[in-house]
């Protein structure tokens, strides 16, 4: 009996020791493997970034832990494995049958973007603006002062991780996120087509792009690593290249409205349009399907949408949908030190520059822009019938996004 207890005690102590050893190893040794491909590890000379050789990648944390545990802490060989570099293929058109891409159309004339000579300076200015306002105690907005540990796991679901190249991307809906997700799938090889990883972003069907099971995101770490998940997140945030793309907040709202309420979308009709039409357009009996509603001329107006955003009851019922939730709530820019801040207004140049910095520009190109992308010049027309008081309230609601990411205050919309 005593022997059995001693045996169980030794197993427990051995397990605890092994876990502690793994953590120490990962903190002090394991992360060293990522240094070579940590593109933005400072300091570095302007225009040059220390990255891994293009045929070298790093195994996932799961693989590392599995090897270490299965070997009884014996040497298991290098963590790096050689992969054949995929040649850059000259795919120049979206795959036939991808309905949305075919309907919207791509502007292939800008497929090869010229990288501005001022990109380094531009990135420095964007990051400086972000850091200064995050540190400015006189500029306050909700959640600004909390630490990374205070962010609930469910709010980390927009941070996509690519362990093969040491990249973390925070996606913002209506800011080219479909194509950036495609890029992340190609880089991480997280999706196969007949057993072969996708090599061209536009070959990936849209329905797979937005399937949450396709991507490794921070909010999934808890299920994998339990109480050690935050520790691993912090290691990756320190070592990996972190980027996001943003957009003029008001233009993003217009784009979200066009996409979700001017086109037939069953989910958004039932979840959002029906309540809006009842609350703000005084409709009591509404069709159950979006096609019936559209045939009857029952559509949410832009005014209904703005009222919905400003209505204090909206947030009490549930957080803003991700398509109109503020960027600071999606990506936590005051808790996460982003290495690269791209903008939709300069998408082609920024995307080309980022892929070069990541040293993956020979593996793929960023897909081109849509021809009918919502333009900033449309703001005055869209807001013309929105009361001035509503516009001013709306600005206050999205002010943090305007300020943090350097977008000028739309004075013309906020004055008589």
From TrEMBL:
Keywords: Carbohydrate metabolism, Glycoprotein, Golgi apparatus, Membrane, Signal-anchor, Transferase, Transmembrane, Transmembrane helix. It is found in: Golgi apparatus membrane. It is a single-pass type II membrane protein. Pfam families: Sulfotransfer_2 (PF03567). It comes from the Eukaryota. One of its GO terms (biological process) is carbohydrate biosynthetic process. The chain crosses the membrane at residues 7-26. It is an enzyme of class 2 (transferase). GO terms for molecular function: chondroitin 4-sulfotransferase activity. GO terms for cellular component: Golgi membrane. InterPro entries: Carb_sulfotrans_8-10 (IPR018011), Sulfotransferase (IPR005331). Its EC number is 2.8.2.-. Belongs to the sulfotransferase 2 family. This is Carbohydrate sulfotransferase. The lineage of its organism: Eukaryota, Metazoa, Chordata, Craniata, Vertebrata.
């Amino acid at each position: 009996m005593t022997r059995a207890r001693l045996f169980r005690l030794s197993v427990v102590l051995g397990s605890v020791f092994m876990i502690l050893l793994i953590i120490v190893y990962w903190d002090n040794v394991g992360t060293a493997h990522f240094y070579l491909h940590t593109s933005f590890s400072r300091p570095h000379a302007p225009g040059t970034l220390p990255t891994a050789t293009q045929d070298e990648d790093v195994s996932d944390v799961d693989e590392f832990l599995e090897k270490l545990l299965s070997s009884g802490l014996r040497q298991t060989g290098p963590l790096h494995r050689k992969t054949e570099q995929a040649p850059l293929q000259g795919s120049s058109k979206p795959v036939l049958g991808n309905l949305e891409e075919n309907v919207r159309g791509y502007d292939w004339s800008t497929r090869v973007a010229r990288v501005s000579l001022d990109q380094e300076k531009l990135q420095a200015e964007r990051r400086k603006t972000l850091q200064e306002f995050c540190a400015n105690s006189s500029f306050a907005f909700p959640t600004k002062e909390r630490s990374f540990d205070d962010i609930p796991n469910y709010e980390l679901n927009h941070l996509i991780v690519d362990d093969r190249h040491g990249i973390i991307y925070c996606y913002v809906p209506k800011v080219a996120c479909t194509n950036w997700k495609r890029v992340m799938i190609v880089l991480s090889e997280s999706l196969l087509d007949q057993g072969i990883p996708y090599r061209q972003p536009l070959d990936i069907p849209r329905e797979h792009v937005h399937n949450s099971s396709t991507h490794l995101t921070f909010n999934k770490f808890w299920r994998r690593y339990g109480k050690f998940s935050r520790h691993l997140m912090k290691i990756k945030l320190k070592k990996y290249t972190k980027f996001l793309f943003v957009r003029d907040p008001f233009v993003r709202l217009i784009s979200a409205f066009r996409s979700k309420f001017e086109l037939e979308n069953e989910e958004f009709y039932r979840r959002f349009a029906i309540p809006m039409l009842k609350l703000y357009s005084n409709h009591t009996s509404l069709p159950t399907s979006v096609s019936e509603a559209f045939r009857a001329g029952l559509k949410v107006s832009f005014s209904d949408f703005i009222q919905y955003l400003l209505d204090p009851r909206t947030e009490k019922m549930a957080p803003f949908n991700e398509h109109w939730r503020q960027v600071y709530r999606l990506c936590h820019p005051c808790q996460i030190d982003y290495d690269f801040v791209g903008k939709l207004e300069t998408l082609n140049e920024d995307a080309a520059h980022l892929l070069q910095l990541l040293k993956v520009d020979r593996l793929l190109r960023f897909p081109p822009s849509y021809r009918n992308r919502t333009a900033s010049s449309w703001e005055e027309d869209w807001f013309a019938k929105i009361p001035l008081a509503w516009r001013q309230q709306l600005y206050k609601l999205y002010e943090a996004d305007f300020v943090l990411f350097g977008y000028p205050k739309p004075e013309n919309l906020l004055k008589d």
